[in-house]
Amino acid sequence: MKNILVVGSAGQIGSELTLALRDIYGGDNVVAGVRKTKPSEKLSGTGPCEVVDALDKNNLKKVVDKYKIDVIINMAAILSGTGEKNPMLAWDVNMNGLINILELAREYKMKQVLVPSSIAVFGPTTPVDNTPQETILKPTTIYGVTKVAGELLGDYYVKKYGLDVRGLRYPGIISHETEPGGGTTDYAVAIYYEAIKNKKYTCFVNENTRLPMMYMPDCLKATIDLMQADFSSLKNHCDYNVGAMDFTVAEMAESIKKHIPEFEISYEPDFRQEIADSWPNSVDDSPARKDWGWQHDFDLDKMTADMLKAIGEKHEKGLI
Q1: What is the pTM of this model?
Q2: Is 193 a catalytic residue?
């Protein structure tokens, strides 16, 4: 694995994943693909950055040729909240962008494609507690529909063409570096920022909403561990459940109050409540733990302490 292109490097996960991969494989060997967003100094200062549009196959091909790319990670996606406002854009980016990447990988006989999925593949008829690896996939969002289709498409390329395609179902991802953009679990990041800045937060889902979550260091670990796993050990390919913790919004608030006793939270559920209600409370990720040794490091309180420390330092420096 020498030359990696991360499509969607300016996003919440892509930005930190690109830097983590550069630490492992060297800055020159990991290309940050950004569409319109100006790359951060961290991205532009540690390795090559290119304008990449997943919907423009010719553009993708030029970057692949220029850097002799043999691994593509597709982090470009329209997320659940934004997708419900513009379903056809979500379908276009999430599906046609993926097809372009898979076709290029097939044509160039690339070493690997990583295509993240999401707990959005599940729906209201899926078992909500300890959701199994193999279960009902009937999502009620366009984002979830595209993620189910993406899993199936990735598996098809494995079986039809022998292409090494891998994927994992991310839970809600929480980070203090890059704020999320349009997802239903965005509240789990915003609550920490507002706790530091204003000591209060109005949440767009109710206090009893429980969802699987993961802190960014564990998200990066899971992604890289799956990338580095022996292909022959993978009994699944594009749809591994990965979990770390699950909690309600009220439990998050109590965790924050251990550090900021005056923190106040109120609730004004919007359309994202229905989306959250269609997703699991927790997932069974035993296949990932068995097949490629997945293990998480952070629980809620450990994550809360780290998030508040990092965001507090940003606030003191006037960066937020």
Answers
A1: 0.93
A2: no
